[in-house]
Amino acid sequence: MEPGNGTQISEFLLLGISQALELQSLMFGLFLSMYLITVFGNLLIILAVSSDSHLHTPMYFFLSNLSLVDICFTSTTIPKMLVNIQTQSKAITYEGCITQMYFFILFAVLDNCILTVMAYDRFVAICHPLHYMVIMNARLCGLLVLVSWILCSLHSLLESLMVLRLSFCSDLEIPHFFCELNQVIQVACSDTSLNNIVMYFSAGLLGVGPLAGILYSYSKIISSIRVIPSAHGKYKAFSTCASHLSVVSLFYSTILGVYLSSAASQNSHSSATASVMYTVVTPMLNPFIYSLRNKDIKRALERFLGR
Predict the structure, then answer these.
(1) Directed axis angle between helix 78-87 and helix 58-75, to 10°?
(2) What is the C-alpha to C-alpha distance for residues 121 and 228, in angstroms, rounded to an integer?
(3) Where do the H-state alpha helices sit in the chain?
(4) Residue 278 has pLDDT above 60, yes or no
(5) What are phi and psi of 171, to 5 degrees?
(6) CA gyration radius, the chain
(7) For 49-58, 259-268, 292-301, which range has the lowest pLDDT when averaged over its residues?
(8) DSSP string, 223-261
(9) Quick one: which H or E segment has residue 298?
């Protein structure tokens, strides 16, 4: 590798969560189990929704899309991590790193966008129930998902192309278990000021923007629920968005936890450990949240598994 020339890079080294050899077998078993549970759980949600005609509604259409994105999101990082543990290798090719970073950004932001679309769906359902099926028609639902995919793909492509212009020196160790954008930028030896501007601007636009949309939707939902006269009516209205609210809370609290742990500690391995929460744990728990708190999904799963 020729120092300072980004085109000559052959590979990066992913240092992972822990370099203790005695923990490698435990970590392999733990992450393999969580990955299989994530894929199997989210796949069950997709199959249950597609096989039950009663669930062919906007809410469950978005839920099946969220499950698909969660499978893809986890699959961008964990399989490579498992291969590295099994082969006792820390290497990832330069092309592999850029590819992994592209798909990680794509599905992370897409997860956020789908959650925002789901919040809008609940807002229309509770605040405008008489016009729900007219507003949330099949064309609009498909368009919302399509626009989310296009927007996130373009954003991810921009971030990846910005990294391709960087030069890297001899120190190519990334203190993480995957090619996380910020960590890759930090090991560059060329000027990264433009990359940081784009990264933080897009984080504000595609991170804070959807969160503001979710908060606005739920502020309107709460206002609508408060005017319902009966306690049973209030409970029924709130129960339709309880699962989504739980998933949103889990998603943003884990991301906030990663940010706070990174800000409080200079230890990059602490940040890598905290990142496990939103890259693995959150996608794994989403199917459990929806299946345990949603009677329609629970019944659909029972019918599907009982065949």
Answers:
(1) 20
(2) 19
(3) 21-51, 58-75, 78-87, 94-127, 132-135, 138-164, 181-186, 193-203, 209-226, 231-264, 268-276, 282-293, 295-305
(4) yes
(5) -85, 95
(6) 21
(7) 259-268
(8) HHHHT-SSHHHHHHHHHHHHHHHHHHHHHHHHHHHHHHH
(9) helix 295-305
d(CA 209, CA 214): 9
Residue 103 has what DSSP assignment? H
Q: List the one residue out of 160, 164, 173, 178 whose CA is nearest residue 80.
A: 178
Quote the DSSP letter at residue 19: -
Separation between Cα atoms, residue 303 and residue 159, nearest integer Å: 44
Strands (E), the chain: 11-14, 91-93, 173-174
What is the side-by-side strand order in the sheet with 91-93?
91-93, 11-14, 173-174
Mean pLDDT of the chain: 85
User: Structure tokens of 294?
Assistant: 């949603």
Helix (H, G, I), strand (E, B) or coil at 168: strand
For 57-84, write each residue's pLDDT tens digit.
999 999 999 999 999 999 999 998 888 8
pLDDT band at 271 (very low <50, low <70, confident <90, very high): low
In the chain, % of residues over pLDDT 70: 88
Model confidence, pTM:
0.88
Q: Tell me the sheet residues that pair with 174.
A: 14
Instruction: Quote the CA–CA distance of 227 and 159 in Å, as a whole number.
Output: 45
User: In terms of C-beta density within 10 A (0-12 exposed, 13-18 middle, 19 or more buried), how is residue 113 classed?
Assistant: buried
* Beta-carbon contacts of residue 199 (< 8 Å; ≥ 6 apart): 159, 162, 181, 182, 185
First-to-last alpha carbon distance for the chain, in angstroms, is 57
Are 110 and 283 within 8 A, CB to CB? no
